[in-house]
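Worked problem 6 (solution included).
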Amino acid sequence: MTTRHDPPEFLSEHLPEHLLRRLFDAAVDAADPARCLPPLVARLRSCATGGRVVVIGAGKASAAMAAALEQAWDGPLSGLVVTRYGHAVPCRQIEIIEAAHPVPDDAGAAAAQRMLAQVAGLGPDDLVIGLFSGGGSALLAAPLAGISLADKQALSRALLASGASISEINCVRRHLSAIKGGRLAAACHPAPIINLLISDVPGDDPADVASGPTVADASTCEQAQAILQRYGIEPPAPVQHVLSSQAAESCKPGDPALPAISTHLVATPRMALLAAAAAAREAGIPAWILGDAIEGEAREVARAMAGIALSCARYGEPFAAPCVLLSGGETTVTLRGQGRGGRNVEFLLALALALRGQAGIHALAADTDGVDGQEPVAGAIITPATLARARTLGLDPAACLADNDGHGFFERLGDGVITGPTLTNVNDFRALLILPGRN
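Solution. The predicted structure is:
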């Protein structure tokens, strides 16, 4: 059995919740575009050959990425990026447009058409810089011919409620779009493209970041149809018709319609977790990263995490207390109740129920973009007293979980993590702090 140690001096002066928030802030700061994008600018400059430099992009971090690029770039730029409402950052040369997320709206549809028009007619001496991050899939809405925006909105709502993974959702999106799945890259031809991506997807596949507007896509229409069947989703008739046609096929690797494309990951979930681990160790707490690409139903992942945490607290295995267990990725929530959803708060509510008030275990789960589901709340924190406090307020934690109402639960407790737009997005962040013999 592993030897236990007393909590470090840091925790004798600060609440465990303060340490958890400190780790979350370190993770978010590590993915700040102002910090991680400028080092790549010298590489970009060497690729410019005297023609126009056109910047395009989409995502919750795209406006902040555009501002960071402008700050570091010495020379003229033009272009357009689209971000979520409330996530805009002022830029001098690059136009910023706001649109809806996670269900697309008219503003996103208009932005997509304008972006396609901006890259039309570029030549081989021009350069396109793509700035894409999580959220770009909904923000760039360009339905294929025969599909209406209303069709895509209805399908988006069904997919988001189905429990499908983000890679599955994005596979469907790529095959119903006139701009995703490499089609925006084809519109840039023959101008070369340099993509700078902030990844919010498990595995960091560029085709899944904003559904890959400027990269090739190896998935197929048949796979998209199989996903809809797997989750029992009956798409609108126009969607089904288009998916059954060759027109819905995306741009494949090696397609001669694609220009030269170079893709670079500016920030990833693993980078954020490494920063949080470093912050924990600076505070005297050993930190262990369990994975940066964890998927599955939020409540099922919570039960698995609870089992590991309880083993650490009771037996010192696989890690002795004090310690922090860190993980990232993107869980899913299959909406069956009438609550407000949110995969991080659902994870935490299920985690609290599985831990049953176990002494010494505290946890934070939050989305690094500052928005969990559709709520302007990043996530929440639980302590060993969470369930008892809830019951004194007349809350039934199990009933709240059954109703998918994690946001309502933590709002009543006042334990939400509220950051506002962080202007980055490297997916979910989870930290379980395990202390010996504490309540």
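Discussion: The CA atoms of residues 124 and 191 lie 4 Å apart.
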